[in-house]
């Protein structure tokens, strides 16, 4: 019996992504809807990257981190959404074993890098508001590059560890992933051995990627709110809050969805519920981020106006 299971595991070279096959009559509608959302997402983040690269008024640490957050978001969505769109046009999509592992690795790595960058951005805002006289001494270009490198290396290292632990498990029964991409809970659910150690590893990695950065963000904003409330000028308080409101809202959306999916045991896995939440944090929230960052930001709107004016006939 054991030999047969090992043989089945060895011969397994692909997974089947079920996606939304149970909603066949809505597949074309969903394809069009999420294609439009994907294009809007790419356009929004690309615009932020270009503006923060070419406009001289946006060459500050805050916009350096914003540019890199948008770059990570572009890569993050490209890892998931094109395959998801292809899945809408086919009933079941086959995914090679290695392709599934790579998709999970890059998804977790980029998501982890984004979590760390959000925490770094919160620290930048903390120094700008709570220690404005020391800002240029503390937040140097070298430090920005070092924090960016640490965020990316940390995300990719933790993801490699997690993905390796999951894909060393035997998948000797069903290879049908009830999801639209190779997400951690959906793949872990298929393993036919005792996954308790792997679940603990997932929990520990998620603690490092999600909870610790989120607690640091909350701590930073606790100090920021206390400092802002001490500002006597109403205009000054409004400017400080508007600078930070977008970042705080993005952090709450990102961490809220991620914590719901990943900080829980395998026994609580609910495929249909997970797919809906995953649709939100892989499609809806990335599309909203550029709007959140820019609609309340006069500097970004001013840079966009200057760019459009310079290219108008």
TrEMBL record:
Organism: Piliocolobus tephrosceles
GN (gene name): LOC111527398
Gene3D superfamilies assigned: Rhodopsin 7-helix transmembrane proteins
Regions crossing the membrane: 28-53, 65-85, 105-123, 143-169, 200-229, 241-263
Family designation: Belongs to the G-protein coupled receptor 1 family.
Ranges where the G-protein coupled receptors family 1 profile domain occurs: 44-293
GO cellular component terms attached to this protein's record: plasma membrane
Domain of life: Eukaryota
Membrane topology: Multi-pass membrane protein
Name assigned to this protein: Olfactory receptor
GO molecular function: G protein-coupled receptor activity; olfactory receptor activity
Coiled coil: none
């Amino acid at each position: 019996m054991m030999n047969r299971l090992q043989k089945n595991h060895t011969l397994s070279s692909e997974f089947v992504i079920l996606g939304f096959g149970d909603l066949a009559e809505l597949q074309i509608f969903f394809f069009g809807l999420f294609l439009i959302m994907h294009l809007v997402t790419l356009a929004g983040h690309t615009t932020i990257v270009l503006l923060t690269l070419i406009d001289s008024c946006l060459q500050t640490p805050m916009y350096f981190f914003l540019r890199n957050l948008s770059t990570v978001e572009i890569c993050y969505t490209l890892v998931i959404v094109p395959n998801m769109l292809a899945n809408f046009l086919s009933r079941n999509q086959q995914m090679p074993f290695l392709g599934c592992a790579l998709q999970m690795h890059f998804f977790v790595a980029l998501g982890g890098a984004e979590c760390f960058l959000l925490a770094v951005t919160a620290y930048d805002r903390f120094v700008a508001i709570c220690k404005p006289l020391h800002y240029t001494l503390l937040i140097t270009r070298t430090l920005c590059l070092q924090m960016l490198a640490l965020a990316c290396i940390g995300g990719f290292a933790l993801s490699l560890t997690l993905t390796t632990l999951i894909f060393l498990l035997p998948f000797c029964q069903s290879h049908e992933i009830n999801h639209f991409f190779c997400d951690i809970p959906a793949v872990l659910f298929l393993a036919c051995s005792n996954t308790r150690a792997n679940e603990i590893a997932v929990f520990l990695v998620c603690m490092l990627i999600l909870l610790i950065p989120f607690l640091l963000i909350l701590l930073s904003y606790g100090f920021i709110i206390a400092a802002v409330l001490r500002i006597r000028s109403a205009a000054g308080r409004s400017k400080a809050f508007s600078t930070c409101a977008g970042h705080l809202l993005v952090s709450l959306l990102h961490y809220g969805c991620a914590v719901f999916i990943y900080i829980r045991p395998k026994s609580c896995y609910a495929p249909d519920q997970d797919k809906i939440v995953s649709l939100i944090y892989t499609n809806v929230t990335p599309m909203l981020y550029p709007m959140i960052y820019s609609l309340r930001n006069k500097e970004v709107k001013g840079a966009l106006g200057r760019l459009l004016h310079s290219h108008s006939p």
